[in-house]
Amino acid sequence: MLGNVGGLYSGHFNFWVGGTISPMDVSSVPCGNIGDFKKFLAQLRDEDDKVIYRLNTSIPTTSFSDKVDAAANCKKLQQDLIMLHERRKEIISNCILYNEGLKSSGDEADKRTASRNIRSLKMELGVEDVVNQRSSQFFQAKCRPFLDFSTAL
């Protein structure tokens, strides 16, 4: 039976909750049900929008830049954004591994479902690249005056 990652992977992932990065139990990731996984992933991708909102509210216009430490705000938000991107990619990759395990050990119905899930999850990795690129471009445009972007985000 297809289900959550459960016992295959131990540990926690971090994700954004109410303005802070918080631990999330990996067993709550619905790797066996692609519909539930996509809903879960959409919630995690919404976290990028929250970082962008915080970026908009914490980075001042030029006339107010001397009243706020924009460089520190940018640096913190950059770290948060990188962590969000890494965690989502890690979650997708772990779900691919989970489904590959089911594909090699399940009955025929589970193998077919796992194969479809793997294809969908690999497509989500491509979507993730687009989402990350969009967020990174916005971040760089907003923080360019305050940070050095010689290294990739």
Please give a structural write-up.
The chain has 153 residues and is mainly α. The chain has helices at 34-58, 70-105, 108-143; strands at 12-17, 20-25. The protein has a two-stranded antiparallel ribbon with strand order 1-2. The model is unreliable at 1-23 (pLDDT under 50).
Short summary of the structure?
With 153 residues, the protein is mostly helical. It has helices at residues 34-58, 70-105, 108-143, and strands spanning 12-17, 20-25.
Compile the SSE list and pairings:
Elements: E1 12-17, E2 20-25, H1 34-58, H2 70-105, H3 108-143
Antiparallel strand pairs: 1-2
Helix pairs in contact: 1-2, 1-3, 2-3
| N-to-C series of helices and strands | EEHHH
**Beta-strand residue percentage:** 5-15%
What is the tally of helical segments? 3
Shape summary: elongated
Which secondary-structure class do the elements indicate?
mainly alpha
Strand order within the widest beta sheet: 1-2
What is the β-strand count? 2
Kindly state the mean pLDDT as a whole number? 79
- Radius of gyration from CA coordinates: 18 Å
Largest sheet: 2 strands, antiparallel
Q: Roughly what percent helix?
A: 55-70%
Q: Pick out the low-confidence regions.
A: 1-23
Distance between the termini: 39 Å
Keywords:
disordered N terminus; 8% strand; 3 helices; single chain; 153 residues; mainly alpha; two-stranded antiparallel sheet
